[in-house]
Amino acid sequence: MTDQTSSVEPVHAEGVDEEPIERNRRLFEGWRLGLITALATLYAMFHMAALNGVSIEDWTGIEIPFLPTFPLETWNFRIVHVAGALGLGFLLFSAYDFREDRPRTETPLYAYLAYPLMAAALFSWGVAITFAMDIADGVMWNGIDEGLKFRETWLFGAPLWVATFGAIVLSWMHRRNRAGFAMPDIVLAVCGLAVPT
Asked: Cα separations (Å) of 72 from 41, 53, 129, 135?
């Protein structure tokens, strides 16, 4: 019989439970971490409410404007799901990597150039809200009415295209520290949220 209690050392696997951090992921602290956590929590709660048919009006009798009716129709749910993921994704990840061997200085000028793009994105979002109110009031959306077609193309679509592509280009050039929000990424998040409205 051999000795089973030989001097075999146990193997310690250190660091195997640590998740690798992507090179372009932002690492938030303080109020920014709290904001991202709150947005992600609301996003998860929306999914639970939408998939389970929860209605605030049914529970309380209080009608709150601009809240969706649950359960959502399948295609509406998918669009809102993708838009929310885009919004969170643009805030959580940058278009460039944070390499420690190549530190880059911040570029606040590009953040200032993003402000007009934010105005265009918010304008498109406001036009989308007016569309939702028109549809709720019974306006038929058939694509034939010239007034609706003009509003859809030039007051919603054109500013949204300008804001989206302008923010994409700025996000490639703009540099921000890893713990902060970048203005072009915020513009892209707003553009992503304006579409399903």
From this structure: 19, 8, 18, 17
